[in-house]
Amino acid sequence: MSTPFYQKARRHLTRKCPVMKQIIGNVGACKLTPNPADPFTLLVRCVISQQISTKAAESIYGRLTSLVGGPPVPMAKLAKLTDDQLKACGISGPKQRTLRAVTDHVKANPMLLPGIEERDNETIHAQLTEIKGIGPWSADMFLVFGLGKPDVLAVGDYGIKAAVKNQFKLPDMPDAKKLGEIAEPWKPYRSVAMWYLWRSLELPAHEEPAVVATPKRAKK
């Protein structure tokens, strides 16, 4: 995603959503930087990142890549690591099983990853969630931070739900339906909107948007 793309995305979001306009004003330029590594390595990173902080995930990933001589993460070398070696990297038992499942699935489906970036979001989502341990959240992160897809909405992400609850002054955490309705005006830049929502959680209390408004619906 280029700087002109982000400028266009910010203009769209500020026009369509007063709350997003306030967040963008407080956060500043978008620094979302997809990491287009090889798709297998992206999957490995998504598994490692499940339910832990970005800092912890980076640390674990660093230990793993050091062990296998990456990045990228060679599938053959990863497959040979013992459970104890993975545990020493900080990878939990459930995540070890998911990494095994990813490796087995990719081996059994050699056409899964080549050219995956050319497929539409729905197809990629469906194909990746066939892997045991790869749920919708992991597929969404693969799309946003790996492939740089611009219009993804991770309805299961706790941070996004918490940020929307805070910024739109909702009484409760939004469910997938409510989140989808609020995010409708953000299309086709929902990935950028998510980045801003994540960053809004880091703002000091006095920098939270003062405007409370219902976003305009995008014209169909």
Structure description:
The chain has two domains: 3-33 and 153-207, Orthogonal Bundle (Endonuclease Iii, domain 2), CATH 1.10.1670.40; 39-146, Hypothetical protein, domain 2 (Endonuclease III, domain 1). The chain has helices at residues 3-16, 18-27, 39-49, 54-68, 75-80, 83-88, 93-108, 121-128, 136-146, 158-167, 176-183, 190-200. The protein contains twelve helices and no strands. The protein is an all-alpha fold. The model is unreliable at 206-220 (pLDDT under 50). Helix 1 (3-16) crosses helix 2, helix 3 packs antiparallel against helix 7 (93-108) and helix 10 packs across helix 12. The protein is elongated.
Short description:
The protein is mostly helical and 220 residues long. Helix content is 57%, strand content 0%.
List keywords for this structure.
2 domains; disordered C terminus; 12 helices; elongated; 57% helix; Endonuclease III, domain 1; 220 residues
SSE layout and pairing:
Elements: H1 3-16, H2 18-27, H3 39-49, H4 54-68, H5 75-80, H6 83-88, H7 93-108, H8 121-128, H9 136-146, H10 158-167, H11 176-183, H12 190-200
Helix pairs in contact: 1-2, 2-12, 3-7, 3-9, 8-9, 10-12
Q: How many separate domains? A: 2
Q: What count of helical segments does DSSP give?
A: 12
Straight-line distance between termini? 25 Å
Question: Could you give me the name of the CATH homologous superfamily of the largest domain?
Answer: Hypothetical protein, domain 2
Q: From the alpha-carbon coordinates, what is the Rg to the nearest angstrom?
A: 19 Å
Structural class: mainly alpha
CATH class of the largest domain: Mainly Alpha
Give the percentage of residues in beta strands: under 5%
Topology-level CATH name of the largest domain: Endonuclease III, domain 1
DSSP strand tally: 0
State the CATH architecture of the largest domain. Answer: Orthogonal Bundle
| Average pLDDT, all residues | 90
Q: Tell me, briefly, the overall form.
A: elongated
Biggest sheet, open or closed, and with what strands and sense? Answer: none
Q: Report helical residue fraction.
A: 55-70%
Q: Give the low-confidence spans.
A: 206-220
Following the backbone from N to C, one meets helices and strands in this order, namely HHHHHHHHHHHH
